[in-house]
Amino acid sequence: MSRPPRTRRRRIALIVGGLVLVLCVATLGVALYLNYRVNRFAESAFRPEETPPQTQYGDTPTPPTSAPLVATATPPAVVAAGATAPPPPTNTPAPTPTATPAYGNSPVIARLKAGQRVNVLLLGFGGPGHDGAYLTDSIQIMSFDPVAGVATLISVPRDLWVYIPPYQGRGGYWGKINEAYTIGMGPVNTDDENIPYRVHDGGGTLASKVVAEVTGIPIDYWVSLDFVGFRQFIDALGGVDVNVDKAFTDTHYPNNDDAAIDASYKTVHFDCGLQHMNGEQAIEYARSRYSPQDGSDFARSHRQQILMRAVKDRVFRLDTIPKVLGLLDALEGHVHTSFSFTEAKDLAGWAQEQIRNDRKFTIRSTVIDVGPLLYSTTSSGGAYILLPRDGQGEYGAIHEFVRAELNGAVATGTPGATPARGTPVSAASAPTAMPSDDATPSASPTSSSCGGD
Predict the structure, then answer these.
(1) SS3 310
(2) What CA–CA distances, in Å, run from 120 to 117, 385, 391?
């Protein structure tokens, strides 16, 4: 005998209601988990919200928060006593609605809206478990001009000999610029994978001060990333497409960054042309320094800039959005920055708005290298170092060079790298023996550039 229709409808309603309840609980659970993950990531990676941003070296003005950042309607004119008010306009078209920005008015957004340049120091290092864990292997400034839409990458050689000022009881001596971050961190266990944000903040602060003094421009924010995080980040993105402009073979790429674990070498090779690289390949491409074709520290800086362009192209693709959780996994505990979490979210929203408006951005790059600016020599302890041509601690020519590069970016606003003044280290001025990891070998005159540039 068939079941009465009312009973069947009740059963169906119960089933549908149960499914809806399960879906709601699952959605709530996912939302809570995402909130937990985001908050945990924010606490470990970003500047605390209650701490205002601090520009190092000089003072870059920030527009007052009370100043209007968008155009407002003109207020109605006051009608003088005894005068006849004009008739209200007729057939006034309705105003076109504008999309609500997906970001707030945090300090960095206020700077961008006011057309002010923002300078970010980008630092890369080995991290826990590596020899020289917090010596910055890569030092670059990304200077972004929101009016021209040009981001200029300026590579600073890690072997530059500078004065590292006293900071929290350390420093106060002449050393390589790549030591500033680790000096600012203070005594740490280099095998500890959970060093708190405040310790990294000390490193970023001191590195910002030293780099700003050398380059003559204010450092508004800093971002640091270790090799493990970089490798995992590239893999979480699904790899990057890199246009290799010079083929090279390095037979002395370390199998392990800590020679106490494995002191042997392996061979890495890269052909010319567009190549898809995973995280490990990207690290090898960025860090290789002993090839006869492309082995100088300045060539490596150039490769790092090429890689950064490739990462930028990959990040700003729509299919990256579903990978947010994987990106958090990749970066958590490996990236630290003086941006607050709110500023980071606002920057992401601002960037999305620029993409929706089809605004194009250009990346230019340059390197502070040997030639008119620097020369190579050895320290009293025998280490390979770079000194300014004008004398130890004299950075006037470097300041002039950096200003010219930034002014050129404003004037041209065109893509492509601007050649830096100077040439790679010559064989005559560089050490001839296989150097240690703290030394920079000379580049061979042999060229393997694509297209014979």
Answers:
(1) helix
(2) 10, 25, 27
Phi, psi at residue 376, to the nearest 5°?
-95, 145
At 287, the amino acid letter reads R
Average pLDDT in the 293-309 region?
Answer: 82
Q: What does each C-alpha distance from 60 to 108, 203, 442 come to in angstroms?
A: 12, 21, 39
Q: Per-residue confidence at 242, pLDDT binned at 50, 70, 90?
A: very high
Cα 108 from Cα 84, distance rounded (Å):
48
Q: CA 273 to CA 269: how far, in whole Å?
A: 13
Query: What is the number of helices (H) and of strands (E) in the chain?
Result: 10, 14
194: Cβ–Cβ under 8 A, 6 or more apart, which residues? 333
Q: What residues are paired with 224 via a beta bridge?
A: 123, 336
Higher pLDDT, 202 or 11: 202
Predicted confidence at residue 43, as pLDDT, reads: 82
| Location of structure tokens 């300041």 | 399
3-state helix, strand, coil in the chain (%, to 5): 35, 20, 45
The span from the CA of 342 to the CA of 46, in Å, is 9
The answer to whether 369 and 303 have CB atoms below 8 angstroms apart is: no
- Rounded to whole angstroms, the Cα distance separating 136 from 140 reads 10
Contact 38, 31 (CB under 8 A): no
CA separation for the pair 59, 41 (Å, rounded): 30
pTM of the model: 0.72
